[in-house]
Amino acid sequence: MAKKAATARTTRATGRRHPLASVSLILIGLMATGGAYALFTTSATADSQASHAAVIDEGEKLFAANCATCHGLNLEGTSEGPTLIGVGAASVDFQVGTGRMPGAASGPQAQVKPVQFTDDQVKAMAAYVASVSPGPAIPSSEYTEGGGDAALGAELFRINCAMCHNVAGAGGALTEGKYAPSLKGVSGTHAYEAMVTGPQNMPVFSDLNLTAEDKKDIITYLQFLNENPSPGGLDLGNLGPVSEGLFIWIFGLGAIVGVTIWLTARSN
């Protein structure tokens, strides 16, 4: 009996210390954790996909009601409007988010006007257009909220943008009734989207022309202009030396002539 009891104790002790027991427990723990994680992520992914599908569906309805007359039900374009195939979400967000679209009337250039849709509706239409034919995406806030090098941005702006928009971003006239709009008050997102999509007469500045960091620096410069008034006093619309010289010629010389006539009349 004593021998059997000793054998049983030895067997139990050996079983508790068996190396496979620890491995088995680790495997069971890993399988349970992995299964729970897979179940959670699958559920979250399914919810996310369903939500995105609902947004696209809403965007399709808004597009059909407000845009398809000119751009076609399949984005193919018509005689009244260009195709939207390949323009991407960024172009829709810019055009609709600035009120340029839907267009009020045909003309050399779409006019900025009050936005007709909520931000969610704009994003829904952008998601729908991107789902039909991908293109440039709405930029990340990392590149649109400033924080770049304003001095470098000013140099890049003078080289690439100032010939149309003016060095102070005041805008300027182009040919045949077209114009480069003022950039005062333009959001960083819309400025970035304009650079990557080339709306109206503006060229496209891809990452081969201006990197994302370059665009960030330009946006930082524009924000600096918006936040800092002209250090020289009255800016005369920031239209440059021609307007300033014309102002002096008309009003300055006119004032001198007026004072001369007044003095002559007084002496007589």
CATH fold descriptor of the largest domain:
Cytochrome Bc1 Complex, Chain D, domain 2
Say how many strands there are: 2
* Quaternary structure of the protein: single chain
Structural class of the helices, strands and pairings? mainly alpha
Question: Any idea what the radius of gyration is?
Answer: 33 Å
What's the number of domains? 2
Assign an overall shape. elongated
Helix content: 55-70%
Cross-sheet strand order for the largest sheet: 1-2
Main sheet overview: 2 strands, antiparallel
Low-confidence stretches: none
The amount of beta strand, in percent, is under 5%
The CATH top-level class label of the largest domain: Mainly Alpha
Describe the fold and architecture.
It is built from 10 helices and 2 strands. With 268 residues, the protein is mostly helical. The chain folds into 2 domains: 38-136, Orthogonal Bundle (Cytochrome Bc1 Complex, Chain D, domain 2); 139-228, Cytochrome c-like domain (Cytochrome Bc1 Complex, Chain D, domain 2, Orthogonal Bundle). A two-stranded antiparallel ribbon has the order 1-2. α8 (188-197) crosses α9 (212-227). The model has no long low-confidence stretch (mean pLDDT 84).
Index terms:
mainly alpha; 10 helices; two-stranded antiparallel sheet; 1% strand; Cytochrome Bc1 Complex, Chain D, domain 2; 268 residues; 2 strands; 2 domains; 59% helix
What does this entry show, briefly?
By secondary structure, the protein is an all-alpha fold. It has helices at about 1-15, 20-65, 70, 90-95, 120-130, 150-160, 160-165, 190-195, 210-225, 240-265, and strands spanning about 170-175, 180.
